[in-house]
C-alpha cells in the first residue's frame, strides 16, 4: 500500500481533509499520529497504554492532557491511535512484534515510520481500503524526510488563509494555539515555503481550504486524479458516514464540525474577529505569501 500523507498548519482544515478522504471506499485516512514526540514507540508507549487503559491520572486528564507531563507524549499518541480506530490490544501487539523483530526500542524515525505503516495497513485492511493515510500536520515542512522513507507516498498539503488560522488559534484553541500574531505568521510562511521547496516532484499537491468548502466536488476530483483513483460521491457526503474519530474523539477540537456538511461559514472569519491592528501585523509578515496563495490583503501594511 502506498500511503497518502496530509499536512498543514494547525487549524487549517487538516482534520476535515482527512475525514473527506476517509469517506472514499479505497482510502483509510486517519487523524494525526504524533509518533516522533514520545521518547520511543516501544516500552514507553507500552507502559502508557496500560496507564490510559486504566485511566490512571498520570496519563489521563481533561481532553488529551495528562496529570504527569512525563507521560503526555506517549499517552497522547495512544489516544490518537484510538481516534484512528486502533485499540489498546492491537497497538500493544504491533509494538511487541516490532520490538521482537528490531531488537531495539523504536527510537529512529525509520523504525517509528515502520510501526505506523504496520498499524495503518491493518486499519486499511479492516476497513476494506486499498490505501492508508494519516496527518503529518505541521511536519509537512519536512516532507523530504518522509518522502525518502516512503518513496511511493503522495502528499496533500491543505493551505488556509493564515489570518483565519491565527483567528482560530486565538479564539478556538487558546489553551495551546498561537498567542502571538507575528510568530504565527512566520510559522505559516515557513511551513508552506519549506514544504514547497522540499517536496518531491509529482508527489505533492496543495489544496486550499476555501476551495474545498466552496467547490467540494471539483477539489475532491482533483485529489482523486492526483492519487490515481476514481472519484467517489461519498467524499462530498462525508457527514453521512461513520468515522473512528467520532467514536473516540478524545476532545478533538474539530471532531464535531467534521460531522456537518461543508460550509463557508469560517471563511474570512478574521474580518470579524481579528481586528485591523492584528491583521496588519500578520500581513506585514505574511503578505507576500498570502498574495501568492490567492488571498487579498485587507490592509496597507508593508511587507517585512
Please tag this protein with its features.
9% strand, alpha/beta, five-stranded parallel beta sheet, 304 residues
Write the CATH architecture name: 3-Layer(aba) Sandwich
Spatially, the strands of the biggest sheet line up as 2-3-1-4-5
Provide a count of the helices. 13
Overall pLDDT: 95
Structurally, the number of domains stands at 1
Q: What structural category characterises the helix and strand content?
A: alpha/beta
For the biggest sheet, the summary is: 5 strands, parallel
**Approximately how much helix is present in the residues?**
40-55%
Poorly predicted sequence stretches spanning 5 or more consecutive residues: none
Q: What is the name of the CATH topology?
A: Rossmann fold
Q: CA-to-CA gap between the ends?
A: 44 Å
How many extended strands?
5
Supply the CATH class.
Answer: Alpha Beta
Beta content comes to 5-15%
The backbone outline, from C-alpha atoms, is globular
Q: Strand-and-helix sequence, N→C?
A: EHEHHHHEHEHHEHHHHH
Rg from Cα: 19 Å
